[in-house]
Amino acid sequence: VKEIIVEKKYLREFERNSGLKVPVKTYEDWVFGEDFAKKILNQHFGTLSLKGLGIEDNTAGLIAAGAIMNYLNETKHTQIDHIYRLYSIDKSEFIRMDNFTVENLELVNSSNEKATTLLQVLDKTQTNMGRRLMQRYILLPLLDKDKIERRQDIVQSFFDNRELSDSVSSILSGIGDVERVISKLAFRRIQPSELFNFKDVLKSIRQLKDTLLEYGSDILKEEALGLDCCEGMLALLDRFIAEDAPNNVIKGNYIASGVDSQLDYYREISTNGKNYINKTVDELIEKTNISSLKLGYNNVFGYYLEVTNTHKDKVPESWIRKQTLANAERYITEELKEIEDKILSSQEEIRQLESAIYDSLLNDLLKFTEPLQNNARIISRLDCLNSFACVAREYGYVRPTVDNSRDIDIVAGRHPVIERTLGAGEEYISNDLYLDCDKEQLRILTGPNMSGKSAYLRQNALIVLLAQTGSFVPARKARIGIVDRIFTRIGSSDNISRGESTFMVEMNEASRILNNLSERSLILFDELGRGTSTFDGVSLAWAICSYIHSSETKAKTLFATHYYELTGLENVYRRIKNYHVSVKEINGDIVFLRKVTEGGCTKSFGINVAVLAGIPKTVIQEAKRILNLLEGGCSIGELAEYSKGNPDRKKEEKRNKCLQLSFEGFSDSGLLQLKQYILQLDIETIRPIDALMKLDELKKMAEKL
């Protein structure tokens, strides 16, 4: 984005919320009025109504287009005839992803300058047009099964025919940016050398068409038939543009010889002017028989003829004497002056003639705008989909099955970006995923930090997204039921400028997700609730999982968490399943296996991760001691007493009692009361938050025993 147009009264709000650091142009509110937009657009398209363009009902789009057209007029962009249509991007045709999701998945940009994006992994395009279209494909994955499969068929054709794919890549590398040429042509900012080079582009388009028609599959031949070789345009360029055309019209000599006789005449004078004058002098010597006649030049009266006194009686009366010397006289003639004037003015004449011819040529070339734009669309599509095929061959991707079910079944899936950034000899550990709306709607994923939970979440979202762009996917096998929305709540951040803490940002994003669920949504929650206390975090995470499970949408969800208390959800809700990222503990050290396995994780391994991070040993030892106390049943209050110093014998005994979890010494009446309290609890109907409160009461009762 290079510049943004904003209604003046919304400028502060825009600057506060957008986060974009680009120039902003403001206009008064009338520029953003519907009536003004219709008026300025009808003027441009020469219509009385916008109904024929199919955009009349898109009020917001009309207003935006009108504001842009007003900006173009105001900034004196008068040559905009290449803008010959408007069309709406129907959001119902694409997966809905908000800015948070696009940023979290690092699709086309990353907040980390050193990070690799999905676009960078997939981009093996040969043209800037293809690169731009690939970015669009990634940001706007399709929802229509037939359109997805058409893209897949083209990718498959290139994938199966390596020789054709390589040939197409080679041809495309010589085509360049047709869209940019069209734009420069429309604004009359295109230079002669660019037009000369564009002849090669047109020849490459012809070569591409011939290659696809001869060697391509049926669907590639269908694409090729849409290409227009623009033979008329090529003929114009061959005729009018000089072979050594300069990169700027100011340098001149860009119109080919033979185009205009007058231009050729002035070029002859400009190039061979002195020879032409010498030839004229020779003719005068022969005509007048003045053998001593010489040609001279000075700044006072330009070119002159010098005649010695011996021959001055032979000077014709038509010659005009300008200077008398001791032994000679100097003359000028009308013919000589005319030639001189032509020589001196020839460059200006050449400039004017070339400019007029060039301007007329551009008008003729603009007639090819529509077929060129159509060519650009086809070429960018072929470039993008051929790039998908190249990536699939090189990285071992497979063609996914895309259907209208609500299932996601991925076998041995891999993260497309991370696997490309691994060091030599490292292998990415693949993992499966199965989600549906009947048996396994919500997957709780537990495991220690750094184990790969976040990568697993992103990996599956990216595979779904890739499948719906028409690309092959990094997996052994994949079947994707079309997803219409992808939501993510990944990472921790705050927005201090808007007075929002990390936890507030978390809750805002969670609220946005829960209020926009659909039957085909895919939701990724990563460590939700860590911005607040443990009790609050667990309560909210539990309640959110419960809400999603109970929702009529049955939205498919991956919920990664370090709250292993949430594994209890599997016992309450039938479509919630526990999985964990495997970790192997060897002599107190942990090895991350990166394998997602069925079942919950009952240990966080937080201290082990702290060791890997280089936390001082004294801190690690104290953390282990405190962990033992807490796992032994000690309360926070008791823990505070032990932390003051060495406990006395009585406190030591109490600590041991905590660690042993012994019920010796408990009164029978106390145990009976505790038993009755537990039996009265209705596990089937109790809300998660109430369950935690009851658990807290049970703990207090146990402390009194």
TrEMBL record:
Is DNA damage found in the keyword set? yes
* A single MF term (Gene Ontology): ATP-dependent DNA damage sensor activity
What keywords are annotated for this sequence in UniProt?
ATP-binding, DNA damage, DNA repair, DNA-binding, Nucleotide-binding
* Keyword Electron transport applies: no
GO-annotated cellular components: cytosol
| Matches recorded under Pfam families | MutS_II, MutS_III, MutS_IV, MutS_V
What is one process in the GO biological process aspect for this record? Answer: mismatch repair
Domain DNA mismatch repair proteins mutS family intervals:
521-537
InterPro entries, per database record? DNA_mismatch_repair_Msh2, DNA_mismatch_repair_MutS, DNA_mismatch_repair_MutS_C, DNA_mismatch_repair_MutS_clamp, DNA_mismatch_repair_MutS_core, DNA_mismatch_repair_MutS_sf, DNA_mmatch_repair_MutS_con_dom, MutS
What is the similarity comment for this entry? Belongs to the DNA mismatch repair MutS family.
| Function of the protein | This protein is involved in the repair of mismatches in DNA. It is possible that it carries out the mismatch recognition step. This protein has a weak ATPase activity.
NCBIfam families named in the record: mutS1, PRK05399.1
* Protein's name according to its UniProt entry: DNA mismatch repair protein MutS
Organism of derivation: Candidatus Onthomorpha intestinigallinarum
The top of its lineage is: Bacteria, Pseudomonadati, Bacteroidota, Bacteroidia, Bacteroidales
